[in-house]
Amino acid sequence: MSILNIMCSLVSQIRSIWLTFINIFSKRETIMYPEKSVYLPPRYRGRIILSRNLNGDERCVACNLCAVACPVGCISLKKSVSKTKKWYPEFFRINFSRCIFCGLCEEACPTAAIQLIPDFELSEYKRQDLVYEKEDLLISGPGKYPDYDFYKFSGVEIEGKKKGDLSNESRPIDVKTLLP
């Protein structure tokens, strides 16, 4: 072992002791969770919920866009039609053990039914318990967008009335007129 190696080792050890000493009195980065609450940024994406309209109806129209947009395929649902000819999910299932909380399902949802809330406490002992059904996901209120109603924009076609005939509905766009 040369003298140069001994000097390098000695300088390295002195540097390590110095770094340890200057960090002894600095502020701790460790948060004592759950005794202290964790700060979450305003745009934090946590647990997924399904919201309802102000009248209590489910917002989800089972269009399947969320399942298609999901990069890991953790969303599954089945469309059904109600007596009022509105679509709704017969079942809606999210596997949170596969979800990566990317938020693409929320962006793809045309009805603002899927929303990500800042809840991150999703731990379970069994992996099967991380599969949430529609009843687990539905909340009682409209969530982030209380004034949004999908059917005000898309309209509802009933007997004797076409889409866009009411004053609070906009007429459907003929996509063929948009072609160059």
Automatic annotation (TrEMBL):
InterPro entries xrefs: 4Fe4S_Fe-S-bd (IPR017896), 4Fe4S_Fe_S_CS (IPR017900), NADH_quinone_OxRdtase_chainI (IPR010226)
Catalytic activity: a quinone + NADH + 5 H(+)(in) = a quinol + NAD(+) + 4 H(+)(out)
UniProt keyword Kinase present: no
MF (Gene Ontology): 4 iron, 4 sulfur cluster binding; iron ion binding; NADH dehydrogenase (quinone) (non-electrogenic) activity; quinone binding
Entry's cofactor comment: Binds 2 [4Fe-4S] clusters per subunit.
Cofactors named for this entry: [4Fe-4S] cluster
Binding site for [4Fe-4S] cluster 2: 70, 99, 102, 105
EC number: 7.1.1.-
Stretches assigned to the 4Fe-4S ferredoxin-type domain: 50-80, 90-119
Keywords: 4Fe-4S, Cell membrane, Iron, Iron-sulfur, Membrane, Metal-binding, NAD, Quinone, Repeat, Translocase, Ubiquinone
Superkingdom of this protein's organism: Bacteria
Membrane topology, as annotated: Peripheral membrane protein
Localization in the cell: Cell inner membrane; Cell membrane
Binding residues for [4Fe-4S] cluster 1: 60, 63, 66, 109
GO biological process: aerobic respiration
NCBIfam families: NuoI, PRK05888.1-1
Family statement drawn from the similarity comment of this UniProt entry: Belongs to the complex I 23 kDa subunit family.
Biological role: NDH-1 shuttles electrons from NADH, via FMN and iron-sulfur (Fe-S) centers, to quinones in the respiratory chain. The immediate electron acceptor for the enzyme in this species is believed to be ubiquinone. Couples the redox reaction to proton translocation (for every two electrons transferred, four hydrogen ions are translocated across the cytoplasmic membrane), and thus conserves the redox energy in a proton gradient.
Protein name: NADH-quinone oxidoreductase subunit I
